[in-house]
Every structure is written in C-alpha cells, then in structure tokens.
Design goal:
ten-stranded mixed sheet; 2 domains; Rossmann fold; globular
C-alpha cells in the first residue's frame, strides 16, 4: 500500500506552510493527490437571547466564520503554490458550526490514505484544531501525521521510532505506517517498562519486529526502563538520542463517554513534539 490520497485541514493561517510543505513533499514523492480543506468555524452557542438579537448574533458569527474560511483558503493556496509544480492538488472551503465540525472533517478523512495536520496544541491553536485532529482520527478512521512548526525534514524519514505497548492502537499505527517504515534505514521499536506478566513478557516487541521484518523493514527492538516521570518523556528522549525523523504511536481515547478525547501519553507527545508524529487509532 502507498499513500495516494492525502488530506490537510486548515482552520487558521498559522502553521499552514509547514503542514502543506510536509504533505506536498509526501504527495510528490508518492505520486499522490493532496486535498486541502479550509474551515471557517462558527463557535457561538446561542442558549437564549432577547427578541430579535439572536439573528444578529448568528449573522455576525457566520460573517466571522466566512472570513476565517477565506483566510485559511488563501493560506492553503499560497502554501500549495510554493510546492513543486508537479504536485496535484485541490482546495475546498467550508463554513460549519463547531458542533458539526466532526462530521465535515470525518466525511473527507475517511477517503484519504493519510491526513496531515499541524500540532493541535499551542498558543496559536484553538479548540477547533483539537476537534479537527480528533475527528480525523476517531470518526474519520484515518492515520494522521502531526507536523510540528519546525516541519518535516524529509518526505521519506530515514530513522523512525515506533512506540509499542502491545495495544490494538499501537498495532494499527504500525500497520498504517508501513509505507514510511519500509523506506526507512532504521526502525526502532521502543518498549517502555513492559509488564512482567504480559503476553510478551519473554520477548517484548518481538512479534511486531518479526511482522515488520517480513515486510522488508529494517527493524530492531529496544526495551527501556521508565526512568522519567512519564512514558512520553522516555519516548521523546529516545527520539532525540537517535535523531529520529518520525515517531509512530497509537492514539488513545481516555473518555468513557466520548472516545474522541486525546489523553495521557498521546497528548503529552503532541504538546511537546519536536518531530512529526504518526498517529492511528
């Protein structure tokens, strides 16, 4: 499998260039098509209002959302224009209410091989950025590549770290990342503080390594102690020590009522990501 249909979503101009550059490089390298979605989000939640005032509030909010959509669309077009002339792409602009954003993004992510997005957390990001990431992962069922402000060093990462904890999500992420893994010079499966009584207690990460090697991946396993407060800290240190170009990990939902809430290791990694993070659920 190769990534042939890529999607990127912008809700603001900030971070668009780095994200589109990464997506454009991947699309060009794999002869894929890049779809851009510019979103204007109406964040108003009108519970009650004086007679006649509700329509004014709604109209003003929609005008603001339309303006944001135009700004995001202009940023997408400018960023795409800065890419290789051979890049095949299209840009669509949509205005939606925050409550309907999940359906809008998921409807497009479901038919993409890879969704490329900016970091959802930070001073310039909003609740809409979080909602877009969650929608693509959980409702869109698409793997997501999160690109930090520093961008992506290469469209074909040479050194990749795979975070492994024997979970379904981690396995899905490893499978979905195979197009990247097969082209890498080195893939390190990192197991942090594996359980002593788990199903892989005698050979942590061994089955995954065997699976990847049979696909031609140059994989090895590294078992690390949890010497820092959080698993995310250990993973981040390993990424730095290896000078890795990409981190692959499962995305986890920690809410019993709404699965699409990133928490724990996933959120920690995204809040402090120094390299692109490949997520799947």
């Amino acid at each position: 499998m190769a990534y042939k249909s890529l999607l990127t979503v912008a809700v603001a101009p900030e971070g668009v260039l780095a994200t589109v550059t990464a997506a454009g490089q991947i699309a060009t390298a794999t002869d894929a098509h890049l779809d851009g979605l510019a979103l204007g989000v109406d964040r108003t939640q009108v519970g009650y209002s004086y007679v006649g005032s509700g329509a004014v509030v709604i109209a003003a909010a929609m005008d603001r959302a339309e303006g944001e959509a135009r700004e995001a669309e202009a940023a997408l077009n400018a960023a795409i224009g800065a890419q290789s002339p051979s890049l095949r792409s299209s840009v669509e602009s949509v205005v939606t209410q925050l409550g309907a954003l999940t359906d809008v993004v998921a409807a497009r992510a479901r038919y993409s091989d890879l969704t490329v997005l900016p970091l959802p957390y930070g001073k310039t990001r909003s609740v809409a950025d979080e909602a877009v990431t969650e929608a693509a992962l959980f409702e869109g069922m698409a793997p997501v590549l999160i690109v930090p402000p520093s961008g992506m060093k290469t469209a074909q990462p040479k050194r990749i770290v795979v975070g492994w904890n024997q979970s379904r999500e981690a396995l899905v992420a490893a499978r979905r990342a195979l197009p990247f893994l097969k082209r890498a010079d080195m893939v390190q499966i990192v197991v942090v503080d594996p359980p002593t009584h788990g199903p892989e207690r005698s050979d942590p990460g061994g089955h995954l390594c065997q699976l990847l090697v049979r696909h031609g991946v140059k994989a090895e396993v590294s078992v690390l102690a949890r010497t820092l407060p959080h698993v995310s800290d250990v993973l981040a240190r390993q990424v730095r020590d290896l000078d890795a170009d990409l981190l692959v990990m499962g995305a986890y939902g920690h809410s019993r009522f709404r699965e699409a809430i990133l928490g724990g290791t996933t959120r920690d990694m995204l809040e402090n990501a120094e390299v692109p993070v490949f997520l799947a659920h």
